[in-house]
Every structure is written in structure tokens, then in C-alpha cells.
Amino acid sequence: LARRRRRTRRDWVKDIYSSDLSPEEILSQPSSSLAAEAQKAETAAVDDEFFFTKKPSNTVSDSLDPDHLEFSDKSKPTLNPAELSKWEDEEMLESIRSLFITGVDAPDGDGNDEAGGDGEE
Amino acid sequence: MAAGSVIQYSGHKCFRHRLVLSILSGKPVKIHGIRSDDKNPGLRDFEVSLLRLLEKITNGTVIEISVTGAYVSQGTATGLLCTKAGTAILLKPGIIAGGPLVHDCPLSRSVGYFLEPVIMLAPFAKRPIQLTLRGITTDDYDLSADLIRTVTLPHLQLFGISDGLELRIKKRGAPPGGGGEVQFLCPIVKQVKTLNFVESGKIKRIRGISHAVRVNPQFSNRMIEAARSILNRYIPDIYLHSDVYKGEESGKSPGYALSLLAESTTSVLFCSEATSKPGVAPEDIALQATRALLSEISKGGCVDQKHQSLVILLMVLGSEDVGRCRMSQPTPQTIQFLRDIRDYFGTYFKISPADPTKPDSSDLLYSCYGTGYVNANRDLA
């Protein structure tokens, strides 16, 4: 339904173990091939110069997130209001019904499967 | 273990994981460039406090902190608060001793910041740990005492760490004043079990803890009502508990929070949490927590994203067999953790689509060959 997954399969093993991309860079790439290309471009740029320049992506993320420097080592993700607001949508709420025991597997019978809400209040 | 091989990192990211991996693997670690570009460079009080806590838990650990490249403090981190914060540390791990311990956490981070690494070490101690931590029990950065009790600890049970495993929340402490107190009890094991967790099942129940300290106790019920307005549509088995702490037990500052967890038929646990903010109604806090829970559920897999690293670590330490776990996409922390594990243990994970036949499923299957880690510290009594 609303969730649309990307088509191309990512090679996680390659991205994690054989690239120098930062974790954030890996996740910002839609698929492995792109990630590899970006890496190529980046290493090429670095090879050209004798001095290492700081990766611009790092500075960007540093300045965007005020917590970045102080609290980058944290285990709870920051709640993103934009991301959470998608759950205000009725269709979105219904889209995950199949993940609950009261839901049905196939999307065909999405009518009234004794909705969980009625009994308990 | 291989003396002389010092593992080196730059920067303050993943600080806790790197120290934990050093202690577990027995390999010294050097971390330099700690906020060296910051206006206020060097270690923060919570990081120094964590080093002191690790010193208490272990025996024979040597920690050196350096300000400009020359190591100024030898032997112990005690008393470092009065020196200028260092931008580099060297940790030479000792053995994990355990036993009864007390630690006062600085108010810059919650007790969760300190408990998370301790949970990774505790099962491999010489003696069972009984750790009392004082400070903030719930904040926005790390797992709260409630989530650790209800979600993190059950994850250890997957690996055969269960008898006597407990977290007691004796007093709550909201930021900024804190004043909370928790006690963590953890049994020791010889070896952890190999994990094989690939069936996500379906969500059968939702539980929650709503608490409000030093504010109108009605806030707690208002949060529960708001959460139910969304969750009631899915399943009938919803129990949201209003946890009341009064007087001394409620800490020094006002605050409230809602912690939620969803459990599947195969005991998968997803969790979320939202904490009070000035000027935001309790209902809105509850809606945030509820929607974050739905986000976690929709990501799928058998392990909540916040617990990926813990599960991955215990898989690496498992017996010499292939451990498997179905999880959603790795978080940035998880990706770095996988790389760090390779540095310390030489273990590579295989990560492949869990359902190759379903193109719209993003679930991944993580598998690795356990290192057969044996708790050599354990008292043989």
C-alpha cells in the first residue's frame, strides 16, 4: 500500500565491510551501486590532492544536528515529528493491521475482522 | 591475548561500544581526536564517569587520558574531573570482576547510558553484578529504566541469561534534577546460547508504563487514554499501567513519560518512548510514543532497532555455530558496530534479504559464526 520498497537489492555486506563510507552515507544511498559510485568519486577526489580535506558530508551533519557533538553516542533515536505524522492517516494505520494477530494475512479481506478496539476500554 | 595490538579509533562516536568490545576481547583500545574540533574539546563528564564505572566493574584495567598527546594521568581515572578534559584515551582492559557496586551518574545523561554497556559486560563477570545507579531514570537520549527492564533484559533471555536477571526501579528521577535510583542484578554465564530467531510472528499484546512524577497524577491517565485512542483498533490485549511514585521516590524534578512495548506470538519485542517537554500536553507525548511504536512495528524483523547492537554482540559471543536473526535495516550505530566487531573479533556477518521471493519485504537475515566465547573470569565454585 503506502509503503513502497526500493526495487534494487542492496549488498549490505559489501557496503559495510568493503567501503569507507560512513554509516550515514551508506544509509543515505538508495542502493549499493550508487554507494559504490559515490565512494569512487570520493576516493578519486582525495587522490588528486596531497592534503586530506575533511569530508563535507560530516560537517553538514554536524551542523544540522545540535545534539550531534554532545550526544552522538545515544541509543534512542530522536523522534521525528514529520516521520510520525504519517500515522495520522487512517489508511496508514490500516496498512499494518496484518502484523497483528487480529489481522488477516492476505490484503483481500480487509473488512471487519472483529476489530480489536470494541471490547477493551 | 595478543599483547601489543592496540586498536585505534578517532572521534567520540560509539565510545561505549568500543570500550565494551575492548574489555570483552581483552584488546587495548586507543581513541583519539575526541571532539578535537569542538569549541570545548575533549571528554564530557558522562564519558569520564563511564570510564570510572568500568574501572569499578573490572579489575586491573588501566585507563590513561591525554590532553595534548602526552599521557598526563597514569593508572587511574579517579580525580580526572579536576584536570582538563582529555582528547585521547588509552584503555588496557583487565578482567570483569562484578560484585556489589554503587555509582552516582552525572545529570548530563540518564542511568540508561551507563547501564547499556554494563549489560553487555555483566554476564561475563567473575561474580554476579549488583549495581546500584543513581541519577536520571528517563530521558530522551538513552533507553529508560522502564525500557531496559521490560525490553532489554528479555533480550538477554534469548541467549540463556535469565535466572536472577532483574532491574529494580527504586526511585524515579526526571531531568534535570534526577534523584532516581535503580538496582541491576545480573547472573553470570559460562557461555551464551546460539541464537536462531527468524520468525517474527504477529503482535498479540501491547503493554505500557505511564508515569508522572511531581506533576498532577492525572497526567499519567491522560497519556494512557490518548495512546488507547490509536491502539484499541488493533488488538484487545492492551494493558497500560500507570506507575505511581510518591514523595522521596519520585525524584527531584517534575516530569512524565510513556513507554510502550508490543509483543508478538514469537516473543518479538518492539518498544518506543516519549518524554515530557515544556509546553507539550501529555496527550501529545502519548501520541508521539504510540506512533513511534507503530513505526517500529512496521519496520518488522525480530529485534527492535534500538536493540540491534546488543543482539549482534551476543551472537558474536555465541558458541561455535551459526547464529541467525531476522532484523530490519541496520541503524548507523549498528553499521559502525559491525565494523568495530570485525576489528576486535574478526567476525564478519552475512546479511541477506530474509524473503528473497518477496520484493517488497525489506527484512534482512543476519548470520554469523559464533566465536565460542567462554567466560574465563567466572568463579569456579
Termini separation of chain A: 30 Å
Globally, the shape of chain B reads globular
Specify the structural class of chain B: alpha+beta
Overall residue-averaged pLDDT value of chain B: 92
Helix content of chain B: 25-40%
Q: List the total number of helices of chain A.
A: 7
Number of domains of chain A: 1
Query: Biggest sheet of chain B: strands side by side, in what order?
Result: 1-2-6-4-5
Spatial separation of the terminal alpha carbons of chain B? 25 Å
CATH architecture call of the largest domain in chain B:
Alpha-beta prism
Word description of this protein:
Chain B: This is 18S rRNA biogenesis protein. Chain B: Residues 8-351 form the RNA 3'-terminal phosphate cyclase domain. Chain B: Keywords: Nucleus, Ribosome biogenesis. Chain B: It holds the Pfam family RTC. The complex is a heterodimer of chains A (121) and B (381). Chain A has 121 residues and is mainly alpha-helical. Chain A has 7 helices and no strands. Chain A has helices at residues 12-17, 23-28, 32-48, 56-64, 68-71, 81-84, 90-95. Chain A is extended, with a radius of gyration of 21 Å. The model of chain A is unreliable at 1-6, 44-49, 52-66 and 107-121 (pLDDT under 50). Chain B has 381 residues and is α+β, with helices and mostly antiparallel strands. Chain B has 4 domains: 1-95, UDP-n-acetylglucosamine1-carboxyvinyl-transferase, Chain; 97-189, RNA 3'-terminal phosphate cyclase domain (UDP-n-acetylglucosamine1-carboxyvinyl-transferase, Chain, Alpha-beta prism), CATH 3.65.10; 203-297, Dihydrodipicolinate Reductase, domain 2 (2-Layer Sandwich), CATH 3.30.360.20; 304-369, Ribosomal Protein S8, Chain: A, domain 1, CATH 3.30.1370. In chain B, 27% of the residues lie in helices and 28% in strands. In chain B, helix 1 (15-25) runs parallel beside helix 8 (332-345), helix 5 (218-231) runs parallel beside helix 6 (282-299) and helix 7 (308-316) runs parallel beside helix 8 (332-345). Chain B starts with 6 loop residues before the first strand and ends in a 12-residue tail after the last strand. Mean pLDDT of chain B is 92; it is low at 69-83. The chains are: A mainly alpha (121), B alpha+beta (381). The interface between A and B is large, with 46 and 63 residues.
